TrEMBL record, chain A:
Taxonomic superkingdom: Bacteria
Cellular compartment(s): Cell membrane
Membrane topology note: Multi-pass membrane protein
Protein name: ABC transporter permease
Domain ABC transmembrane type-1: 65-255
Keyword Transmembrane helix among record annotations: yes
Bilayer-crossing regions: 12-34, 71-93, 105-124, 136-157, 177-200, 233-255
Keyword rRNA-binding in record: no
Any GO BP: transmembrane transport
Cellular component terms per the entry's GO annotation: plasma membrane
TrEMBL record, chain B:
Transmembrane region(s): 65-87, 99-125, 145-166, 199-222, 254-274
Membrane topology annotation: Multi-pass membrane protein
Name the UniProt record assigns to this protein: ABC transporter permease
Keywords on record: Cell membrane, Membrane, Transmembrane, Transmembrane helix, Transport
Residue intervals of the ABC transmembrane type-1 domain: 65-270
Species the sequence originates in: Roseospira marina
Highest taxon of source: Bacteria
Claim: Iron-sulfur is one of the keywords in the record: no
Length: 268, 284
């Protein structure tokens, strides 16, 4: 039974409403970030971009930005590599403990992140490691590399193993097969996993909360200011971090078509 | 070929296993070890006792466990009801809009959870986006909508919507259209098709979605802190307090073990029943 036109329209409206619901709070933060007064109250009477100038000039914000970037950058690279091999073990090869491995990977994703952060803090303490942003990288990896693995695994499932077998029959070594066949075929998955890894690390705060020691990431600073000692910079810095992710996503979405155009134009 | 497959599989799994062993399983062992240490110690070289667990029971921490699980359950049920029509539409009705909705929902995940919840605080508070404008336009306002239990559940529903929506849509996509068509041709009512075709065939998606949302919501902390303003204390909050203000690691560890035991057993039972290969689309 096909849905009637009315049902179709109703469901479309429902979908649009859901999207609006998801983004409404960001609209409120956006308005708050351009309010002139120090104590926020709606409706906003005077608009001003002064907080942006202040946030961009602030040393604290620059330090936070640098640490967030370093953490997200390292997390991205490591989880791409670990996730690539993990996905092959997850989806491609039939080995003895594959079922167990698949389930083990899901566990960290299900785990409450704050508690995971605390557990890591105790573990670092037990082996005498002083927490800093380096340990936050480790904390992010526990949660993000399984997600990267799942994303690459989706690609690895649609991968035709006979290609590798053919190459092997032609006399390729395992390393050659990896370089010439497996990596190029899984590359789209690896790139999107990297994008996810960066953005999830960039926005994550429950894992950083206890594992950064004296350092602090952007989301962590925001959370601290929200819970105690409100600063009018909170909405502004919040919008700036969102703008950072949006810019990266825009680049990631546009880059492939630019590369294609560039390839198509004949090289002189 | 088969032997090679096995060797390569184990080899490829090694980096991930090392990572998870050192940074996931080992910390859990440390938490378990700390939970049986005497009160307020910061290393593991003490005579083990179970005083922390006694404390957990005596101090009545079960109420915060009950709050966390209860609110997570309500949020999961609400999310299922909200997401079912939407997931159904994504899998069977929308054409291009499925992609738009998918991208839109995924993008919202990249915005830090605390910024989005903070946005709701600004929207719902007294003098916020809703109340402030109502008062400016109609002259009458109301007290803010924050700091109660329903708003915490609202926050959980908001944050975990994607975790219900996507597995449900995936599950519904697995229902063959022929089965529904055949049921209708044989005279089944809509309700009957829902009960006997749609729900059973979409069950893997329902299980994954329900499990994810429930488990994540049960361990959530930011919703009750930012939106609920300590109207109720949830177990994850107790764990944090024991570690930070309380400076009592064994108590915090024992509380964490309670949370881990509940969430872990639900997750393991659930995860062991689903076939990941089928859900993620193995072709062979």
């Amino acid at each position: 039974m096909n849905p009637t036109r009315l049902t179709r329209a109703g469901l479309l409206a429902y979908g649009i409403l859901t999207l609006a619901f998801l983004y409404l709070p960001l609209v409120a933060v956006g308005f708050a970030s351009v309010s002139k007064s120090r104590y926020l109250s709606f409706p906003i009477r005077r608009y001003d971009t002064g907080w942006y100038a202040e946030a961009l000039a602030s040393d604290t914000v620059r330090d936070l930005l640098l640490i967030s970037l370093k953490v997200a950058g390292i997390v991205t690279v490591v989880s791409m590599v670990v996730g690539f091999f993990g996905a092959l073990a997850f989806a491609r090869y039939h080995w003895r403990f594959r079922g167990l491995f698949q389930k083990l990977i899901l566990l960290p994703i299900f785990f409450p992140q704050t508690v995971l952060g605390l557990a890591l803090l105790m573990w670092f303490n037990a082996v005498d490691i002083v927490p800093s942003w380096h340990t936050a990288v480790v904390a992010h990896l526990v949660w993000i590399s399984p997600i990267a693995t799942l994303i690459i695994a989706i690609r690895a499932y649609s991968f035709d193993p006979t290609l590798e077998e053919a190459a092997r029959d032609m006399g390729c070594s395992t390393l050659q097969i990896l370089r010439e066949i497996t990596i190029p075929l899984l590359m789209p998955g690896v790139v999107s996993a990297g994008l996810f890894a960066f953005l999830l690390s960039w926005g994550n705060f429950p894992l950083s909360l206890f594992t950064t020691g004296a350092d602090s990431t952007l989301p962590e600073w925001l959370y601290a200011k929200m819970v105690s000692g409100y600063s009018p910079l909170v909405p502004t810095v919040g919008i700036l971090t969102v703008a950072g992710s949006a810019a990266l996503l825009a680049v990631a979405l546009i880059a492939p078509s630019i590369v294609r155009m560039w390839r198509r134009t004949p090289q002189a | 070929m088969e032997r090679l497959d096995r060797r390569l599989g184990a080899l490829c799994a090694t980096p991930m296993l090392l990572l998870l062993g050192l940074t996931f399983l080992a910390p859990l062992v440390v938490v378990a070890a700390f939970s049986i240490m005497p009160e307020k110690v910061f290393d593991l070289w003490h005579q083990p006792d179970f005083s922390a667990y006694v404390e957990v029971i005596r101090q009545g921490y079960w109420t915060s466990v009950a709050w966390a699980l209860g609110m997570a359950l309500v949020a999961t049920v609400i999310l299922f009801l909200i997401c079912w029509p939407l997931a159904y539409a994504m899998a069977k009705v929308y054409r291009r809009f499925t992609l738009v909705l998918t991208i839109g929902v995924v993008l919202s995940l990249f915005v830090s959870e605390n910024i989005r919840l903070f946005g709701w605080v600004l929207t719902l508070m007294k003098g916020g986006l809703i109340e402030g404008h109502l008062r400016a336009w109609f002259g009458t306002g109301f007290d803010g909508l924050l700091y109660n239990v329903p708003v915490i559940i609202f926050g959980l529903v908001y944050v975990y919507l994607p975790f219900m929506l996507f597995p449900l849509a995936q599950g519904i996509a697995m229902i063959p259209d022929d089965a529904r068509q055949a049921a209708y041709d044989l005279g089944a009512s809509r309700r009957r098709v829902l009960w006997e075709i749609d729900l059973p065939l979409a069950a893997p998606g329902i299980v994954v979605g329900g499990l994810l949302t429930f488990v994540l919501a049960a361990g959530a902390i930011a919703e009750s802190k930012l939106l609920g303003g300590q109207a109720v204390i949830v177990i994850a909050d107790d764990v944090e307090t024991a570690f930070t203000y309380g400076q009592n690691w064994p108590l915090g560890s024992a509380l964490a073990m309670v949370l881990i035991a509940i969430i872990g057993s639900i997750a393991i039972v659930g995860v062991s029943r689903i076939d990941l290969d089928a859900i993620m689309g193995r072709r062979r």
